From TrEMBL, chain A:
It comes from Gracilibacillus dipsosauri. The chain crosses the membrane at residues 27-46, 52-73, 85-106. InterPro entries: Cyt_c_oxidase_su4_bacillaceae, Cyt_c_oxidase_su4_prok, Cytochrome_c_oxidase_bac_sub4. It is a multi-pass membrane protein. This is Cytochrome c oxidase subunit IVB. GO terms for cellular component: cytochrome o ubiquinol oxidase complex; plasma membrane. The keyword Lyase does not apply.
UniProtKB/TrEMBL annotation, chain B:
SUPFAM superfamilies: Cytochrome c oxidase subunit III-like (SSF81452). This is Cytochrome (Ubi)quinol oxidase subunit III. It holds the Pfam family COX3. One of its GO terms (biological process) is aerobic electron transport chain. Signal peptide: none annotated. Coiled coil: none annotated. It comes from Gracilibacillus dipsosauri. Residues 28-205 form the Heme-copper oxidase subunit III family profile domain. Keywords: Cell membrane, Membrane, Transmembrane, Transmembrane helix. GO terms for cellular component: plasma membrane. Gene3D superfamilies: Cytochrome c oxidase, subunit III, four-helix bundle.
């Protein structure tokens, strides 16, 4: 019995350690997100060519959202199959919605 | 064992937000809801993209938007996202007070964001007479950004209610999922804002 208890405390310690490391990763993610934001604003303020800036800032936004989803909202953890399915289902419908509305007006 | 003991175990599990079936259901159900929210915002973004050139002889987005304020708002909201990550870190370590403090910081940042947004809107209305009724661009802009602002307000009221309601109870398996889900909602608000500052403001002044 005593053995079992110590095993669980060891496991808890291990988990806590893992969480601390994850927290560090999340702070790094945050720093990257700030940098991406500054790059996006900087490129627009520097008045670079529209054709170059628009795709780049959209990619930067997409990567930032990925960071948010996988690190801040823990989608990188186990047991997120159903949430991922639901969320990407929503993203798929969202893509179709934007495409439809834009094509309707811009055609 | 009574229900009270089940929800207040002597030793908190490692993931208290998934300690009960109700908690796990809330978690999956909430992600389902976020999928729906994505589509809701997509329809508003699609409308905005389709109508942002229809200014009806009024101000264009280029003449209206100032990036300085938007940059500050972005930094505030991004930071509030990190502070709610800290709150959830302390929740998992069963440090209720620390969680409350970090949630409090998140709420303060959220209200400053909201204050700046209200300032921005009143500025447009009074200085430029740019309103919801000025043009199709005006309608699309205020609906999209205003809907996001409404989400911010709702999220803030949600988090504040949770903090006050559970202030004396402390953390247990009944309210841990509630805190976790409120923080997911807060992150989602930031996700939407990333696209708003990119698509509306940055692409608007290009």
């Amino acid at each position: 019995m005593a053995e079992k208890v110590s095993a669980t405390t060891a496991q808890i310690e291990y988990e806590k350690q893992k969480r601390k490391e994850e927290m560090k990763q999340q702070v790094i993610t945050f720093a990257l997100m700030i940098i991406f934001t500054i790059i996006a604003f900087g490129m627009v303020m520097a008045e670079m060519s529209k054709l170059f800036v628009i795709p780049v800032i959209i990619v930067l936004a997409a990567v930032q959202v990925g960071f948010q989803l996988y690190y801040f909202m823990h989608m990188s953890h186990k047991g997120h199959e159903m949430p991922a399915f639901m969320f990407y289902g929503g993203v798929f419908a969202a893509f179709l919605t934007i495409l439809a509305l834009v094509v309707l007006v811009w055609w | 064992m009574s229900e009270h003991d089940v929800l207040n175990p002597k030793e908190m599990p490692l993931n208290p937000e998934k300690g009960t079936l109700e908690g796990r259901n809330k978690f999956v159900g909430f992600w389902f809801f976020l999928g729906g929210e994505t589509v809701l915002f997509a329809s508003l973004f699609g409308t905005y993209l389709a109508l942002n050139d229809s200014v009806n002889g009024g101000k264009t987005s280029e003449e209206l938007f100032g990036l300085e304020l938007v940059f500050i708002m972005t930094m505030i909201l991004l930071t509030s996202s990190l502070t709610s990550v800290y709150a959830m870190y302390h929740m998992k370590n069963n440090a209720f007070k620390k969680m409350q403090i970090w949630l409090g910081i998140t709420v303060v940042l959220g209200f400053s964001f909201l204050g700046l947004e209200i300032y921005e809107f009143t500025h447009y209305i009074h200085e430029y007479e740019f309103t919801l009724r000025s043009s199709a661009f005006g309608s699309a802009f205020y609906t999209l950004v205003g809907f996001h602002g409404g989400h911010v307000l709702f999220g803030l009221l949600w988090i504040v209610s949770l903090m006050i309601r559970n202030a004396k109870r402390g953390l247990n398996l009944y309210n841990a999922p509630k805190f976790y889900i409120a923080s997911l909602y807060w992150h989602f608000i930031d996700v939407v804002w990333v696209f708003i500052f990119t698509v509306v403001y940055l692409m608007g002044v290009l």
